[in-house]
């Protein structure tokens, strides 16, 4: 079935509704995003236009439709080690650099932020990457790192914090040998081990808020979430991220995203497999 | 929907619906009697040797007994656990007894009651962690009861419509849907509504029946009792996504943002999940004891 197009008026109505419901503010020219995310819901509810969908959600709170719209907008692709290259760069470049600093007494610990952690695959992939790296080094205690994992949605945070996945979710990008080492079978499901979990703190957080309470980070992953935001908001977001990073800290965006035209506070670094950013300070 | 009519009509007529565990009823009454205390409750419990032995075993389990000397009599055990815990326990043991021998396997019951007790315990935690204005007015023990009974409709469905019950489970194996969604689609009625019918027959208070009835769609519940439906909803979601869903159920999908928002959940997510995980051991012990 061809995707129904959304009109400007309908886009404004739904955009304002979503912002009031959960704080996500869609920039202009995001019609395609709404169409992609909501066309299935249109079909399921039997609404023939987006306006009808909006009116139903707004005027019939008992329909639960508001929640479903918010869900459809905030659900992300959930893969382990998504795109691979950020985790390779951590392993091959960034962590060795931090390790040198630890050994020479210039650094005490490592703090990483997963800024749109969804159902947990990203922060757990980070934790596994760090554990694997430090395992291969001698004499370095494994307790020196901390991962902050945040998301705007309490439902995915609960799933992430529980760290339990079914066969379908576990199969998406997780190497088999990692499954054996870092997961335990729990009935029909798979549960992340405590060794992986203990480094992570899960917190509900809206990226429109002030970042100062979160502290400073050495690495920030802000992947595939900026697609929701306007150009203005993105500029302000990356400025806040720059301030939340320690000197020479690193930022990773999604595979198809870029800082070009949005921030001059970062230097682009090119690795064999992908691009990342270092704050210029 | 034809199947829905069949189910509703049969359940309205049948005399053989399980009855509310009598001992739990007597204990409940005693506990609401300001004159009664541990002594009176002990007497009731001691008069039921099977229950007495379970209470003792539980009081002596590592969950309640941190290497203190073993409790030798019911009175000591009740003092140690406190009347609040005791009421929960007696209710759980009582209701497990009611459904014994209905034909489901011991493993099924173990999983079912572990899940249900966890939901009961977590529903209390959620109310405690919420910032509801009238939090004090909510009866903690009733909140546990509502959570404990939230899926009892599944057992009724099995007992009276085993073919429907089996068909639902077959579908759950191949489609990643919540059980209640499959029930709605295939039967036109789900276990929340069936459970609420039973609880109504047991003359349990409004807020417990509503809490169970609207647990999957709390936005449909009337304002006076909505908080219960919302708390059960969040509790069931948290317990299920921890890997303890209903037997043969899938990890949960549907989540009511409204429930999280209305209950003004202050709770640190990591801490809430930790409480869920902590409840698992206690729930498993209680379920095992109840099924002996």
Count of discrete domains of chain A? 2
CATH class term of the domain at 2-15 and 103-291 in chain B: Mainly Alpha
Backbone shape of chain A: globular
CATH fourth-tier homologous superfamily of the domain at 2-15 and 103-291 in chain B? Hypothetical protein af1432
- What's the total helix number of chain B? 16
Main structural class of chain A? alpha/beta
CATH topology of the largest domain in chain A: Rossmann fold
**Uncertain spans of chain B:** none
Percentage beta strand of chain B: under 5%
What's the story with the biggest beta sheet of chain B? none
What characterizes the major β-sheet of chain A? Answer: 7 strands, mixed
SSE string of chain A, helices as H and strands as E: HHHHHEHEHEHHEEHEEHEEE
Rounded to the nearest angstrom, the distance between the terminal CA atoms of chain B is 40 Å
Helix content of chain A: 40-55%
What share of residues are in beta strands of chain A? 15-25%
Helix count from the secondary structure assignment of chain A: 11
CATH architecture of the largest domain in chain A: 3-Layer(aba) Sandwich
Mean pLDDT of chain B: 89
Chain pair sharing the greatest interface:
A-B, 30 and 24 residues
Can you describe what's shown?
The complex is a heterodimer of chains A (281) and B (292). Helix content of chain A is 43%, strand content 18%. Chain A has 281 residues and is of the alpha/beta class. Chain A has 2 domains: 8-74, Chemotaxis Receptor Methyltransferase Cher, domain 1, CATH 1.10.155; 85-279, Vaccinia Virus protein VP39 (Rossmann fold, 3-Layer(aba) Sandwich), CATH 3.40.50.150. The longest helix of chain A has 19 residues, at 85-103. Chain B is an all-alpha fold and 292 residues long. Chain B has a domain at 2-15 and 103-291: Hypothetical protein af1432. The A-B interface holds A 21-22, 61-64, 66-67, 70-71, 153-155, 157-159, 161-162, 164-166, 168, 186-187, 189, 191, 201-204 and B 111, 176, 217, 219-220, 237-238, 241-243, 250-251, 255-258, 260, 265, 268-270, 272-273, 276.
């Amino acid at each position: 079935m061809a995707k129904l197009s959304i009109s400007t008026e309908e886009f404004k109505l739904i955009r304002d509704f979503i912002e009031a419901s959960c704080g996500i503010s869609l920039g202009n020219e995001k019609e395609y995003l709404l169409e992609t995310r909501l066309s299935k819901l249109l079909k399921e509810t039997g609404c023939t236009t987006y306006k009808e969908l909006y009116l139903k959600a707004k005027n019939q709170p008992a329909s639960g439709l508001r929640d479903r719209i918010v869900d459809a907008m905030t659900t992300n692709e959930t893969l382990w080690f998504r795109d691979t290259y950020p985790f390779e760069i951590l392993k091959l470049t960034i962590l060795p650099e931090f390790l040198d600093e630890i050994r020479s007494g210039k650094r005490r610990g490592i703090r990483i932020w997963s800024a749109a952690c969804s159902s947990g695959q990203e922060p757990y992939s980070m934790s596994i990457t760090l554990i694997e790296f430090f395992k291969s080094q001698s004499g370095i205690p494994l307790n020196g790192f901390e991962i902050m994992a945040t998301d705007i949605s309490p439902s995915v945070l609960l799933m992430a914090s529980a760290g339990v996945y079914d066969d379908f979710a576990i199969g998406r990008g997780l190497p088999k040998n990692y499954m054996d080492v870092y997961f335990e079978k729990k009935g029909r499901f798979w549960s992340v081990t405590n060794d992986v979990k203990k480094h992570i703190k899960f917190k509900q957080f809206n990226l429109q808020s002030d970042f100062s309470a979160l502290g400073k980070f050495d690495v920030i992953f802000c992947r595939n979430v900026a697609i929701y935001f306007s150009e203005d908001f993105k500029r302000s977001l990356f400025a806040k991220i720059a301030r939340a990073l320690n000197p020479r800290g690193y930022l990773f965006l999604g595979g198809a995203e870029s800082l070009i035209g949005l921030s001059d506070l970062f230097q682009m670094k090119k690795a064999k497999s992908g691009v990342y950013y270092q704050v210029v300070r | 929907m034809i199947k829905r009519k069949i189910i509703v009509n049969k359940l309205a007529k049948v005399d053989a619906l399980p009855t509310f565990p009598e001992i739990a009823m007597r204990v409940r009454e005693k506990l609401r009697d300001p004159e009664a205390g541990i002594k009176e409750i002990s007497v009731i419990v001691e008069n039921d040797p099977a229950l007495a032995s379970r209470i003792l075993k539980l009081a002596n389990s590592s969950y309640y007994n941190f290497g203190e000397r073993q409790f030798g009599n019911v009175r000591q055990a009740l003092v140690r656990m406190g009347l609040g815990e005791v009421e929960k326990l007696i209710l759980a043991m009582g209701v497990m007894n009611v459904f014994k021998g209905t034909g489901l396997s011991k493993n099924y019951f173990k999983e079912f009651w572990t899940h249900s007790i966890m939901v009961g315990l977590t529903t209390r935690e959620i109310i405690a962690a919420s910032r509801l204005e009238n939090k004090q007015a909510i009866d903690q023990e009733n909140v546990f009861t509502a959570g404990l009974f939230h899926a009892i409709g599944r057992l009724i469905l099995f007992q009276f419509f085993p073919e429907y019950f089996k068909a639902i489970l077959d579908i759950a194996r191949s489609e990643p849907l919540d059980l209640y969604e499959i029930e709605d689609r295939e039967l036109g009625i789900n276990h929340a509504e069936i459970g609420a019918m039973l609880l109504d027959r047991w003359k349990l208070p409004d807020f417990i029946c509503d809490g169970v009835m609207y647990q999957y769609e709390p936005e449909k519940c009337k304002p006076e009792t909505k908080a219960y439906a919302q708390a059960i909803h969040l509790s069931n979601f948290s317990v299920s996504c921890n890997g303890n869903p209903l037997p043969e159920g899938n990890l949960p999908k549907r989540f009511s943002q409204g429930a999280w928002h209305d209950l003004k959940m202050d709770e640190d997510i990591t801490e809430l999940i930790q409480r869920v995980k902590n409840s698992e051991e206690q729930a498993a012990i209680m379920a095992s004891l109840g099924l002996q």
